[in-house]
Amino acid sequence: MFQLSHHTIVIFSRCPMQYRFYTTPEIRKRYRKERPFLTLGENIHDTLNSFYKDFAPGDRTLANLEHLFREKWKRNRRGFSSLDEEREWGMEGLRQLRNFYLGFDVTKDPYLLPETYCSIELANAVSLSGRIDRIDHEPEGLHIVDYKTGSPLEDSVGVVTDDDCLQLKLYTLIIQQSHPDIPVVKASYFFLKKGEFRSIYPTDDMLEETRSRAIGIAEQMKNQREFVPRMNALCAWCDYLEICPIKEKIKNRQERR
Ligand code: SF4
User: Fold this and answer.
1) How far is the CA of 8 from the centre of ligand 1 (A)?
2) CA-to-CA distance for 80 and 133, rounded, in angstroms?
3) Domain 1-32+110-257 class?
C-alpha cells in the first residue's frame, strides 16, 4: 500500500530529493536532527492531549495546564544549544498555552482526541493518513482542529504555508470517510502564537477536488524516477543538507545573504 500524508506531499512539492531521503528509512533515521521548534511542538501537543485526558473539566485550570507543560518539558528538552535558548522556547510555549486557554472552552470535552495516526484507503493501493489533534462535536456536525505552533518558514521568512488549507481538506477526507454518519461542517487551524482560528467549511465539491488532487500527487510520487534537488527557502533546516549534492551552492547562497 502506498502511503500518502500531507507531510509527504509538502516535502515532495518542495524538493523531490528531500522526499527521496525522507522516504528511505535508513537515511531518515541516520540524519534526523533535533530542532527547538520540533521540541516545542511535541511538548505543546502532548500537553494539550493530556490536559483533556488527565483532568476532569473542573480541574482544567491555567495553573494545571502550565504545570503539565513543565513536566512534559523535563522529559523532552532536545535540540537546544544553550540553557538560554531553551528558556526562551519554554517561555514561548507558556505564552502559546495561555492563548490556547483563552481560545477554547476547556470545560467542554472534545468529541475525539485521536491517539495515533488516522488512516483511510484513498484509492486502490493508496492510503491517506494524518495526525489529527482534536475533533469537536458542534450542533451542525464535526469540527476538526489542528493546532499550529508555528514553523520555520513563518518564523524566518514571514510567509504562511498551506495557502489553500490542503492539510485541513485532507483531514476532512479522512474523518468524513471514517465517520460517514456525521458531517464534517468545519475544519480549522488554531494558531497558538496569536490565538487565532483559520477555518474552512468543506463542501462535497471541495472534497472531490481534494481527493482527485491527492490521488494525482500519489501517482506522481509513485512514478517519479529522478529525484532532483530543488533549492528553496528551507534548505538551511533540511536534515539532509550535509549529503545534498548541491550543498556547496546552497552554502554560497547563504553566505551571500
Ligand atoms: S538541502 Fe535543499 S535542495 Fe538539498 S535535499 Fe534538502 S531541501 Fe533539497
Assistant:
1) 14
2) 25
3) alpha beta
